[in-house]
Amino acid sequence: MSRKVAHNALWNVGGQLVTLGVGLVALPILLHALGAARLGVFTLALGLIGFSGLFDLGLSRALTQTVSSSLGQGRSRGQVAALVWRVIGLLAAFGALWLVALWWAAPFLVDRLFSLSGEMARETLFGLRALALSIPFALAATGAMGTLEGLQQFRLLSLWRMPMSVLQFGLPVIVALIRPDIGWVIAALAATRVAWMLLWLTQLHRLLPREPGVRSSRADLRHALHFGGWLSVSNLVGPLMVYADRFYLASLFPPAMVAYYTVPFDTATRVTSLPQTAVNALFPALAETQARPEDSTRLLALAIRAVVVLVLPAVLVVAVFAHFLLSVWLNAQFADAATPVLQLLLLGIFLNSAAHLPYALLQAHGRSDLTAKLHLLELPVFAVLLVAGVHRYGITGAALAWTLRVALDAALLYFTAWWLQQPLRSMLARSVGLLCLACGAFLLVVYALHGPWQRVLTGILVAASAFAALRMLRLMRPNTDKDNTP
Questions:
Q1: Does residue 131 contact residue 184 with C-beta atoms inside 8 Å?
Q2: For 150-197, what is each residue's pLDDT tens digit?
Q3: Calpha distance 340→325 (Å, rounded)
Q4: Distance separating alpha carbons of residues 176 and 167, to the nearest angstrom
């Protein structure tokens, strides 16, 4: 099982690296072609796409959990296929409703939320309505992708995600170079969602075709809807807490200033999204091993150590050299405003990477209700932190508020997992101690040290993390040799 999960995680990470590379190349071109103000609007459109977890009402994740657990219990593929295609039909229907809602709300978003006027407002309105037209296609694609993850087809997903990521960013870049109109650039982004749907539905039909005469059971559909219903609460509140800061800033500051926050945020989350990508491979394995806590313990312990030794050095190096990297990538003026934002966000992203593990554990055991309730608890806290932080520190205050909220989220998730999963308590307690030490090291190096000492300690921590990563690879071999799971 460990070898299979590691193999799937590597394929996921490889696909994400290609997507990251394409995005890193595309953003400077878009900045040059569109300018900072229109680039800020483009990143807000990316934020709306990030709300796809809200639009699908949690059903794509429910398909992952249901498919993996059903096949693990020996259910027939015909029944599983019937359920999957029925849920994808529901997703397309939900998408049509969201299309109408966003089409109707687009003028309000442009005028009141983004505070745009004139030509910029007309361009953005056109782009948002083009984005609305793509929602049914995007939701059907997310359902197909969730099913393929439940089938643990991560190699297939990654191999196709690589060229599709080139299309996702390449088409908007081509349009921006030909016609620097943000409406048409967003429309090009929306068009790629149709291509995604055609690709993933074709692959799903090949692997899990619907068998004539086989119907899905009502119990399976109720389980998927119940799981997705609670998950939709998290998918509403979670992206709201991830993206509300940028929309709040857009209501207070001009788009060019918002870009000083959104560009570092989007870039940092993409650079450090590899742990979340790996957790996507871990999630169906945890669902499959619900009745075997010793397997879950081994998988989670390995995953938490991997987050520390792989993510900590990455965020630390980027934080220490943030100004230099931003200056080379964009320009010095941009780096002056964005460096404090990026450094704070990197600490939050590290904590968020670690929080994905207990989050996946709880949902793999069917407790999407608990993760939803925790998000509901965090929402008013984040709102207060965001308003107070922006009022006092501007865009840097938004980064501080987001990082504090993520720290609270991680603490609550680990405590909830510790409280519910008694066989895993010892491992979870040790993991929290390790994460606290890692955060202390980050704060010491980035904010307390300067000059040569900062660089020396950074090098020591990176070397120690590399040594620990190599040791983990060696320790995995005896476990995988004993593993009977193909």
A1: no
A2: 787 877 887 887 788 888 888 888 998 998 888 898 899 889 888 889
A3: 13
A4: 14
